[in-house]
Amino acid sequence: MHVTIVFYGCVYVNRVSDQQRTELTSMKVVSAAESSVMMKMNDLTSTKHAMFRVCDVTKVYDMGEVQVQALRGINLELYEHEFVVLLGASGSGKSTLLNIWGGLDVPSSGSVHYHAQELTAASDTDRTRYRRDHVGFVFQFYNLIPSLTARENVELITEIAKSPMNAMDALDMVRMKDRANHFPAQLSGGEQQRVAIARAIAKNPTVLLCDEPTGALDVQTGILVLEAISRINRELGTTTAVITHNAVISRMANRVISLSDGMIAGIENNTERIDASELRW
Ligand SMILES: Nc1ncnc2c1ncn2[C@@H]1O[C@H](COP(=O)(O)OP(=O)(O)OP(=O)(O)O)[C@@H](O)[C@H]1O
C-alpha cells in the first residue's frame, strides 16, 4: 500500500497500534521535511524504546539587544540504554541540548518528553525532582569538595538519593575503591574525574549526561575515564550521552549525533563499537 502523506508536526511512533505501525511503514512520504520523517519511519520498525523525545525544540538566549539562537528546530529521540556521542563545533548547541535533557534548562519552543513526562510542561519543582531522581551529570571540571574524602564526596549523594547504590560500589565501578579515603588534592585529575563519575552514578540514575568529561585530561587518563563511563553504560544499562570535540571518541558510541549551528547535521549508527581501551588520539 502506498499513501501520500505530509507531516506538519511531530509523530510519536510509540503511540501507534500494531496495525497503524504496519500501515505507516508502507507509506510513501512526499514532504519538504522528508528526511526527518524518514528518520521517524525507520524508528517504527525498531524495537528500541525512546527515553527522550525532543520535538521541534528551539532555544533563544535573549541578551537584550542581541538574541542568540542556540537551537533551531531539533527533532530527536534518545533510546533506553544507548550510548550516544554529541559532536559539533564550538557554539553548535551541544551543551544547550544536554542541559535541556537534564532539566537544567528549558527550550524556547517545542517539547521534550522523558518517557511519558513532558519536561517542558513540568513545574520547576517537578523538574528539580526529575533531575534529582533520574539524572547524573559529569562536567569537564570535577567540583569535588576538597575537605571530604572520595568516599564522603560520593556519600553526599547516597545520603539523599531515593534508591542509591552503596558508595563503595559506586567507587568500585570506576576502579577507585582503593582510594576511597583519599582527599581530592591527593588524586590526579583523571582520578578526581572518576570520583565525580562515581558521585554521579551513586544515585542510580537512568541517564548519565557528560559534558566534555575528558576535556581537561591527557590521552591515557582520558581513556581510563571513558572506560569507566562505558562500563557504567554496559553493566548498569544507564543511558549515556557524551559531548566531545574529539571525533575519535565517537567510535565507542552506538550513535553519533552531529550538531551544526543549532541543527542536527547528521546521525550515524556505529555498526561496530570500539572499546574505550582501544581508542587513541
Ligand atoms: N547562558 C547563555 N546566554 C547566552 N548565550 C548562550 C548561553 N549559553 C549558550 N549560549 C550561546 O548559545 C550557543 C550554543 O552554545 P552551547 O554552549 O550550547 O554550544 P556548544 O556546542 O556546547 O559549545 P562548546 O563546544 O564551545 O561548549 C552559543 O552561541 C553560545 O554562545
From TrEMBL:
<keyword id="KW-0813">Transport</keyword>
<protein>
    <submittedName>
        <fullName>ABC transporter ATP-binding protein</fullName>
    </submittedName>
</protein>
<dbReference type="InterPro" id="IPR027417">
    <property type="entry name" value="P-loop_NTPase"/>
</dbReference>
<dbReference type="Pfam" id="PF00005">
    <property type="entry name" value="ABC_tran"/>
</dbReference>
<keyword id="KW-0067">ATP-binding</keyword>
<dbReference type="GO" id="GO:0005524">
    <property type="term" value="F:ATP binding"/>
</dbReference>
<dbReference type="InterPro" id="IPR003439">
    <property type="entry name" value="ABC_transporter-like_ATP-bd"/>
</dbReference>
<feature type="domain" description="ABC transporter">
    <location>
        <begin position="52"/>
        <end position="279"/>
    </location>
</feature>
<comment type="similarity">
    <text>Belongs to the ABC transporter superfamily.</text>
</comment>
<dbReference type="InterPro" id="IPR017911">
    <property type="entry name" value="MacB-like_ATP-bd"/>
</dbReference>
<dbReference type="InterPro" id="IPR017871">
    <property type="entry name" value="ABC_transporter-like_CS"/>
</dbReference>
<dbReference type="InterPro" id="IPR003593">
    <property type="entry name" value="AAA+_ATPase"/>
</dbReference>
<keyword id="KW-0547">Nucleotide-binding</keyword>
